[in-house]
Amino acid sequence: MKYLHTMVRVTDLEQSLDFYCNKLGLKELRRMENPAGRFTLIFLAADETPDAQVELTYNWDPETYTGGRNFGHLAFEVDDIHATCQSLMDKGVTINRPPRDGRMAFIRSPDNISIELLQKGGSLPPAEPWTSMPNTGVW
User: How far apart (Å, rounded) are the C-alpha atoms in residues 10 and 119?
Assistant: First the structure.
């Protein structure tokens, strides 16, 4: 068995692509428009793991989605959790659970999907501003 992708329904395709591609750094691999079904599928992945994909599903007819955490979360391994979180903050992303332990942080997508960031290898030494930063919202 091989993991293929995680599907996430999105309400604003451009806002979601900005978040996942421009802020988180994923790349668009392929796109499928289905006029008969009235939806668009966009598959994204990190350069390092092109086989671990996120499928953004955009339904053309407006819907309200709730409970973005009901499936758990997406998780990505990063080279430097402190630098990644700082870069995301600089781009306007809220760090819901800062990397106080030098190992793990959580953010949320525009559609409230919880995303876990994990430090590659061992934990980095705890550092400010992360060690004293409180949690924000839920993660």
Answer: 27
Given the residues 14, 55, 63, 116, the one annotated as active site: 116
Cβ within 8 Å of residue 99, ≥6 positions away: 81, 82, 85, 105, 117, 119, 124, 130
**What DSSP character marks residue 139?**
-
Report whether 119 contacts 102 (CB < 8 A).
yes
In contact, 73 and 116? CB cutoff 8 Å: yes
10: burial class by Cβ within 10 Å (0-12, 13-18, 19+)? buried
116 among known catalytic residues: yes
Res 70: pLDDT: 46
User: 133 to each of 55, 97, 124, 130, how far by Cα in Å?
Assistant: 32, 9, 16, 5
| Strands of the chain, DSSP E | 5-10, 27-34, 39-46, 49-59, 74-78, 104-108, 114-119
pLDDT mean for each 10 residues of the chain (139 residues): 81 95 97 95 95 92 71 85 97 97 94 90 95 92
State the Cα–Cα distance between residues 44 and 57, nearest whole angstrom: 11
Q: What is the pLDDT of residue 1?
A: 61
